[in-house]
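Researcher: Sequence of Transposase Tc1-like domain-containing protein follows. Predict its structure.
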Amino acid sequence: MRWRAIGMLQAAARQYAAARELNVHRSVIHRLWNHYQRDQNASRRPGSGRRRITTTADDRYLLQCARRRRTLTERQLASQLSAAAGRSISRQTRSRRLHEGGLFGRRPVVRVPLSPAHVRARLHSAREHRSWTREQWGRVLFTDESLFNIKNDSRRAMIWRGPGTLYRAPNIVKRDHYRGGRLLVWTGIAANG
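Model: Prediction complete. Tokens:
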């Protein structure tokens, strides 16, 4: 866009016409033209901030490691990156690069893998109870208020994933053991009392 503005001004266009064409303020075009006449260059001057410590290759490598093995911890990613890059990079920088790449640490979706026998049993149960009345369903108590851990596995497992990818296959952790959840209790109480 800078060189397009310079080309328009060199073709004898007025500054306000170039600003209107490029949808910028006239002062932007004025400063750009003065800079070009002084330095014969329209490129942006280097900023005054600190240089990026990671290269684009480092950033790509970090994102690739996190996407390939989503369950790696941040420290494991750090050790892989420092082994590949040959220098250590701060935790904040690694976190910033992952966020720039669209990856955030989130808890995975946990589901119990169903065998074909489980699928058939669930389908049979759904078909069997599809014509139940409200009174019949009134005798069933659904509860999911308590979580009972049989194994002491309360550690939070995190994965690296981007926004909107919650239910994609790589982001789902399958567990075969009981993790608590919904309990179906038949109360056996008559509908009239």
